[in-house]
User: Fold these one by one.
Assistant:
Number 1:
Amino acid sequence: MQVYDSDVKQSPIISQVQGVWEKRGLLKLLVSRDLTVRYKRSVIGIWWSLLNPLFTTFVMFWVFNTVFKARMPDGTSFLPYLLSGVLLMTLFNQGLTMAADAIATGAGVLTKVYVRPEIFAFSATISAAINFFFGLIPLTLVLAISHKWPGWSFPLAIIVVGCMTLFTTGLGLMLAIAYVNFDDSRSLIQIFLLALQYMTPVFYPISVLGPHTKRVIELNPLTSYLSVFRDVFGNNYVASLNNWLMMGFSSIAMFCLGFYVFQRAWPRVVAKI
Amino acid sequence: MATSGGENLMSEIIVEVKDASLAYRRTRHRVSSLKQTAIDTIKKRMAYEEFFALKGVSMEIKRGETVAVIGRNGAGKSTLLKVVARVLPPTTGRVVVRGAVAPMIELGAGFNPELTGAENMLLYGTLLGRTPKEMRGRIESIAEWAGLTEHLDIPVRAYSSGMVARLAFATATDNVPDLLLIDEVLSVGDEDFQERSKARTETLMNSGCAVLLVTHDLNTVRTMATRAIYLDHGAPKASGKPEEVIEQYLADLHR
């Protein structure tokens, strides 16, 4: 029999992760709901969700390649570099906003029934990760067109996606608190995401930057995810050990921070609703 | 504990609330934008006050008992429900709940219009604490009771509002929990379904589970509750026999 005793305090992170794991049946249902709604019921199916990143890539490619006549300094082709950047940023943006949205829109249920809200955040970031895997199909095609195939190390991209899932779940949990508390946080986050996109080497190589700018850009944790992803999947960049460490550390740190902040702030949010 | 052998199962205590309080800091002016918060912080105008939504509430609910919570709007009735549902941890005091908890919540809150009736039912039941496996085995009979067997495979978007309410109600009341939480007894759908849903709620309440009922309908309290608690500004002002508690509440109300 399940017993709830408010006096039994659990160690925050571990118990929370356990709680999510115990409810993996619900997690699976939520993910399949997201995917069903997105894929099964629309005519163009998965291509619809890829339309945005593909079109963004197309526009950016046209702007930088044709208008500015920019070339990669090492002579490699620009398109796979750009597409891998756009896809990973889409994973980040989608995961983050969908996680926060899932909790904000689910608040009606979450404030009445005991369900760990973290499960909603997780389901959103996992759906975003599955979308991302579909995006690897056009990326492989683009690589092939530029006479490059995904390197032998391509399965390691799973590690990048795993780290990104932890990172966006943690950040998304904190954003969810902002979404529920402040009406204007949705529009502010869009500005923030745009700024972050420019501060990540999505459409420019780090090597063209001056030393000061380069340091700033490298402080952005997303830079490391992108570097590692381009290294393991496209072989069109060489990631350093630093990149790997930064990626691993930032994902775990953000995940723990997000859970911690959320656990403290959520009861206050529920009390006010 | 009363679960073992000789003792009567009916005396088993399902809910224990001991001197529970719930306090939170709230801003004096209801701020809901980051912009306003930033301006107020800079101007040092942020004034917080400690607000007690619950103050020293104690109660016990045994198996088979129905405890009704009454009081004015904002007296802390729904907060008490949330604390017992373990959605909110009490700031001080202790809450112990033994067994499975099922809330009867606003109907259809967790529904997605793009999913079919069966898919929504599965998700909704799982949100309410059952396992997907249990739910899969129950879908047919739930749909039959709600009279929706033929509509199970079409998206809920195509349902009428009455059908949505029937689906939600049938799902929420399908199993007998150890503790049933009710925020206003629901009556939904057409007249025939209202009768049936009311009867089903009563059957559920009399099926031996513990019930915590929050309502403004004093007649329901008179007929269904074994005990009542009257909350005033978060604090218990009276508790005991429903008739006596209602009397005091009405006396305060008309003063």
Number 2:
Amino acid sequence: MRGYSRALGVLGLVSLSCMLLSVSIGSASLSVADTFSVLTGTGTPLQQTLILELRLPRTLSAFATGGLLAVAGALMQVLLRNPLADPYVLGLSGGAAVGALLAMMAGVAGVVVSGSAFAGALLSTFLVFGLAHGTGSWTPSRLLLTGVVVAAGWGALIALILAMSPARQLPGMLYWLMGDISPAANPFPALILLIFVCLLVFPLGRSLNVLARGPMQAAALGVSVRPLEWTVYILASLLTATAVTIAGSVGFVGLIVPHMLRLVLGNDQRLILPACALAGGTLLVLADTLARVVIAPEQLPVGVITALLGVPTFLYLLHRSR
Amino acid sequence: MTLHRLMTLLMTLLISFPLTAAPICVDDARSESVCVSYPVERVVSLSPGATELLFSAGAGKQVKAVSAWSDYPREATTLPQVGDSNRLDLEAILVLKPDLVVAWVDGNSAPQLEKLEALGIPVFWLEPRTFEDIARAVEHLAWLTGHEDTGSVRASEFLSGIAELRNRYRGASPVRTFYQVWHQPLMTINDEELIGRAIQLCGGDNVFGHLPRLVPRLSAEAVLEANPEVIITGGVDEEDRRWLEQWQRYPGLRAVASDNLFLVSPSLIQRPTLRMLAGAEELCQVLEQARARL
């Protein structure tokens, strides 16, 4: 366990410094000294607004979103025992996207869009749950197939909405679909959820480890598989729905962060889940910082950067691990 | 040769040179000359702006169909539609047998219109980037449709109105201005864009005028750092102040502190047509109010 706390300690330090970095740089130039003076309660009003009202909530939101997605991805991979599983594989982001895009098409903004996205995500979760659960005989592959087909249905609806919307609304919709943290306002519900799910590892970690090896073994070792699987599914869905509500469908974090960490740290869920929270959060904080500054004062959607950063890193780790 | 045969020869010559359809060629925004049989009788407009310019040129009666959202002037709303600007229904256009199609560089899809050109339909492209471009577009459309007089009167009225505004606000003290085009993502315009030119005309100083992209996408942070003295937007619809209210969260902004948050009528200022003169006048008045509050 000592190795675990060291790994988590290092990750925690990296996360903290990345967050500090992210708060210090942006299109307005502030020095690290300025940042510290603001964080300790001094600094000009403009600096305070920039850091406390714009950058800090955004950085925290990015961290929470990345963390939630990575943990949700790790849970899905355990649940489906499929390395290609990510938080969106069961159609949840599609449902959220249809909700958000419909709200945007109706011309509303802000909270209504997030609320509608959350409702869409929940609808999709229950739809997949109901359909996969329906006849009684249930397997992860049946859940996966149901989810993938429901996702395809959402995809068609998204395309339909994009095709029917007036041109001036398209940039906003595309930014949502690519994942964009700039609209995020209050990061705290998501952060609390993230901490809560990391604590859940203590009661659930051992059972998850067993489940990852296969349901037969898990049942043989006294784990009640079906309730555990549904708990994991509902939990992962809730995390993903929260993340998608904050930042739209940010791709890739939920797929590659768990894999990266398994390549480096091994496959113990008691370590992987909190490590995912830290590493996923850090990746998204870095990506969002880049999205804000590469062509400042213009902005890119963060989803573009996560993929650009994540793909080469992941390929490198995969190559090295052979 | 008998007189009779001479007459027959003359008749033949006359018939082979029909008097009605003399060809005329006019350069469009691509600097390509668009040749039509003069005057064109069946025009299809492929953007709301083009529709307005055609009606301004006096060619309203010759417009047989328009693109979606062509809501001005009122007569245009009753015309058949041939789809959204960026997704045209080519079949609907072909069925109308137009002898001229008026397209818009920023909105229409070039591959779609290449198909129309390949089928022999002349396409006149518009790309208004300056007030002079707008006036010239009206004139050229008037030439093609046989309303030279109307076109030149409207064009010169427009340009003299613009010149008058330029003179009136030449010495006005510059006001640092942020114009918000859209909220999510946050978008503005640079100095090359027509709204940007209107801001300069009124003695405004666009805080993002120097950016390279015509319609840059920004962070709210960039706006806070630029600290504009006035924030102006067209909003989503007329009289929709929601985007302005969002800036109230930052009382440190000069525009918020001096209560310089203004709406201008989007249909006047956001369309490159002759109504832009009225839009520019409104914008100038708004900036004048802003000056008084600083």
Number 3:
Amino acid sequence: MSIDFHRRSATELMTALDSGECSSVELTGHFLKRIERLDSALNSFISVCGEQAMTAAKAADAARSAGEAGPLCGLPIAHKDNLCTAGVKTSCASKMLDNFIAPYDATIVGKLQAAGAVMIGKTNMDEFAMGASSETSWYGPTRNPWDLSRVPGGSSGGSSAAVAAGLTPLATASDTGGSIRQPAAFCGISGIKPTYGRVSRYGMIAFASSLDQAGSMGRTVADTALMLQHMAGFDPMDSTSVAIAVPDFSAALEQPVRGLRIGLPSEYFSDKLAPEIADVVHAALSELEKQGATLVEISLPNTALAVPCYYVIAPAEASTNLSRFDGVRYGYRCENPQDLEDLYTRTRAEGFGDEVKRRILIGTYALSAGFFDAYYNKAQRIRRLICEDFEAAFQRVDIIAAPVTPSTAFPIGDKVSDPVEMYLQDVFTIAANLAGLPALALPVAPAGGLPVGMQFIGKAFDESTLFRAGHQLQLATDWHTAQPEDAS
Amino acid sequence: MVIYAPSRNRCQAIASELPPPTRRHTPDRMITQDDIKQLAHLARIKIDPDSIGEVTAGIDNILAMVDTMQSVDTRAVAPMANPHDAHQRLRPDTVTETDQRELFQSQAPLTEAGLYLVPKVID
């Protein structure tokens, strides 16, 4: 039996399954053993469902033998722990939901299962997806497989670390302000935040409902496209899901980039960008230029307003969404409540971590009487200005290229005491969430031995062009093939 | 309509168009511990008295960063609640959900006879 499964892409593993080189039982067993051996150092999983996974793998092998193999039949996958999975704990990395077993599957969990994917576990994250380092998890921080003293990014840091370390070929993730792209960049993998409304949010525990969007993480752009193909599509159970056809992403991958106009926003490539990041991003763009793409300087003049705007809208929506955690219907309840008020206030004080409470308080402030216009309404107007920047830019270009992060992965503990410093980690990613646009992160050349990411931002519902540019770059370069040594 | 102009690190409301004097957080008055106590009450989160100073300072820092957006004139800009400017989709008014009370209540901290139990509210 081959022992290099963890070094292959999901696309290659599907070929191995389809050709009979390996069974799903062998493949699933291989990844489960790696989790058992390596994850104590990484802490990338909150739950591992070995027995359930092996049962599903046997069923996948039987389906394949019967000629009923789905498009992802037998392929192991991990789910971020903010996606509801019937019968398997869904904690959102919070003490509040440490005992929560969802009574149903999130739509995308069900769709990926229907395509044949085998769930091997649930990944660690920042509590309720609020963070950029995966340090706010109730279950302890996840570590970056490239350097265990550093963060993997967040909030989907468990998913990115698990894919990078070869503990799963694919993982779901979610992105409210950069939570797919930033951890993908810090861990040297590919990840896409689709257009808002492209992927169902039903069963994904809500953080900021007008920004949240689930997406896919994998070792290559082609893998993220393969997975997104089977996640995307209209869902009547999500009132913000958009009824628009899902194109064949695999066909888009093969299109050359000749003639593609790529916009470089001057605000993202300013002299404030660390030179080591700027250099490797420019090197990647030169490769696309060599292939016939045109680089065009553009301006997104309201870029500096994205972070302040986001830190009104996201906490405001979070304070509303998280009011459901009251110790009455599910989740944590404090001991011996004296009265109903005590039940609510102590349950929420003890069940939520500091960052979650901080954001609920900010959101409550922004929505409170006398401040609504000055904060929430103001931020919604700024949001439109940011959208209009993109609309104007897309008159001139097909996609926009930018760095994902202002630095490489930072040391664990480095920014926990300074929330504003942590929030500024998302300075390059937040605008795409506010505008609801798709954005694909992929690795470029490393800097100082650590991965660096670049992102392509596209027009609404045009994930295809992002996949096209990303895949063509990966066909001509090998940055995405780098893998960290196994931690011991 | 309230207009805001930039200041050192806080929004500066133009005097003639100030909102009613209910504002707590203003350029010349940082958010106070009493403000935080009131917010904590609204959000139903108990805050340990020993940590209230730290919580207040942390939130004040964040609001200082957020207030940089106040320098932009947005009077002619309509608020945007949904990135596609979409409206709430309605579905046919038909029953689609079956009763799953038992399943849902299996997750509850305390139930009795199909009811969720909380401390006594009325004596």
Number 4:
Amino acid sequence: MFKNYLNLFLCLIFITSCGDNISPVDSGLENQIFHFGNGSEPQGLDPHIVTGVPEHHILIALCEGLTSSNPKGGEPLPGMAESWTISEDGRVYTFNINQNAKWSNGDKVIADDFVWSWNRVLTPSLGSQYTDMLYYVEGAQDFYDGKINDFSKVGVKALDDNTLEVVLKNPTPFFLGLLSHYSTWPVHKETVLKHGSIDDRNGQWTRPGNFVCNGPMQLKTWELNNKIVVEKNPFYWDAEMVKLNEIHYYPVTNVMTEDRMFRAGQLHSTYTVPAQKCPVYIEEGNPNLSIDPYMGTYFYRTNTLHPVLKDKKVRKALAYSINRKQIVDKVSQCGQKPAFSFTPPGANGYQPKTEIPYDIELAKNLLAEAGYPNGEGFPVLEILFNTSEDHRKIALAVQQMWQANLGISVELVNMDWKVYLSRESSGDFQISRAGWIGDYEDPNTFLDLPMPGRGNNKTGWVNREYEKLVNQANQTLDQEKRYDLFRQAESILIDELPVIPIYTYVRQIQLSPDVKGWDSNYLDHHHPKYIYLERD
Amino acid sequence: MLLIFLKRVLAAIPVLIIVASLTFFFVRLAPGGPFDSDRAVSQEVLINLQEAYNLNAPLSEQYFDYMSGVLVGDFGPSFRYPGRSVSEMIFTGLPVTLELAVYAILIALCVGIFSGVLAALKRNTFLDFIPMAIAMIGICVPTFLMGPLLVLIFGINLELLPVSGWDNLPGDKILPSITLGFAYAAYIARLSRGGMLEILGQDFIRTARAKGLSERVVVTKHAMQGGLIPVVSFLGPAVAGLLAGSFVVETIFQIPGLGRFYVEAAFNRDYTMILGTTIFFSAMIVFFNLLSDMAVMLFNPRARD
């Protein structure tokens, strides 16, 4: 009797599974359908509301800004603007809108679409979280803060249908890079207003069937927590370049599930690689493992208002007694690079010249000078981190290094993500782990963070000289002089160490060899119009 | 029986109101808010965001607004997913979770009752030991281990079934249903064995056999009716547990069910979503418990007193 049931069960499996056993990766190759592991369910598809990397992966296919990301990194490429001119003082940008640029419903993209869209981003009641991206535009912050009510006084104007003029507060050399960030991209005015008001966060315009945008793909279906399908947009100005017919985005939150999906041929690319599998894949020489440099820094924040940590000698002692090489080689083990500067080296040609030595003697002396010889009398500090096995391992290594090298004890405190954020923001921490990923390819995206009054500073550190140098750099047009000023600022930062850099991130994914046109770049922006599927 | 049913339904209303009220205040006590993110927003932006969701109003006003919305079936908008209402998200995830639960419970019932009854009938033989040992493994092995193991065997090594998804590829519902069903099958097997053993030793079974009835009739008509009462009482909480507790299986198999929304809502401090799903699951638990009590009364007249 058991045998009968077992046979029945196996037959059932056989019948259901042998109908069409071709894997999605194989069938995708024939139909140019790209199966993409996308981390988590996107918050939404409104470029003015959402924040996050999974959202960016989808929006880069659906919409396009004045410029578009360069697949090989570096200077942005033309997008909705086919060309532009910059005034001598670097404050006035005149964009010539591509005359073939169309929305996915066939309407022409005009300069006023950008004016209306930026007005929308800066409307306070919309609650956009990336308004500061546009604060470089003259009058933008005043409009957001309610100091001016007339948007025509903000420095963005449509001179005619095809010409957009943007006036900046100061020369901002990275402004073109900012424009490839989705918060500055246009939305289709008529569609948004058809489904709600200008400041309606809950408008239904982003639903399949309603969604209109101007990117290489258009929204086909959206099954919540299951998958989002985008298909080729025939109205895209560069449609000839687009080879993919569809992209299927899967919000796979569990990294092990994603790994299994890739191994079973259900995905062409994964969002990440499980940390414990990365060293194994490196050792095995897994040809699907792709590790690229990524513009991000893993670091420890110190609370400079804390009675012990306010002494820079203590912060230096802590930083100099961390063996970064050992952490990347033995703990993170996935190709990360030890960080000796806060800004990752090579961001748009910027090379910081700072050093953070691993020098136990020097660290001990510094601690002794601070009044704690051999760690005596040093209070037990806490390292705060959000619950994650990877963060715990690094914190354990740092704890052990400080114990062995300085003779001091620290406690590890792991908290749920929101509790961790809340404690960091309210200054209720001593040392906390953090990470920062660049929004655009320029050192300013990092060096702006420790500026006084910035919400992401969180360390309580205020240094007017640093602030002056960063501000000065952002008003300097000559790139070399500008980078020199940034280097000086960075030297102050690394001398003061309110942030203790640990390593520079890498982007580690599994990528099918069928995927072509997937170039490595520092921001990990992969424009779908360059990607296609082909088997060697 | 109708009176009992109505009484229980009426008693459920204050339970749900208390659950909703406690959840409303407790989620606000938890540190961190829905708009905290690693890219901190300025105070002005935060105020505007809170304004957009009426979070700047006094708590009492927010509470009465929310509760009056719930009374007309409006659970409010999700904070995490702009443009989505909580009701819409619940009703998107619910059919998937229900379908998974139905398959799992069917597998659990078929496998569990069959092996439990068999083990009781063949007491102290291999046909008792083996199914009960498997049941013990089923109880001990958690779904987060069982799922990946089944995936490794049937999905990756034998390449027979998809490793994840729901309604995306042929056969992708098999492994999650078995994973979830197996844990419950193990409980049901043990409960049915215990229930059957108790009944099989009773006088009326001896009488039935003495009357010359066939063993099949004795077991199916007389013994199982009483022997499976523990299983029936277990079914109510089990179905509710399946609905609310399918999170692990939904995550392992990338299933777009309600369980994932529930847990992620708590991590995201998506207040309205936490409230909506908690109220919904509470209602489900109350309802299925009621249903199982009714079923027990139907099977066992003594329980009606």
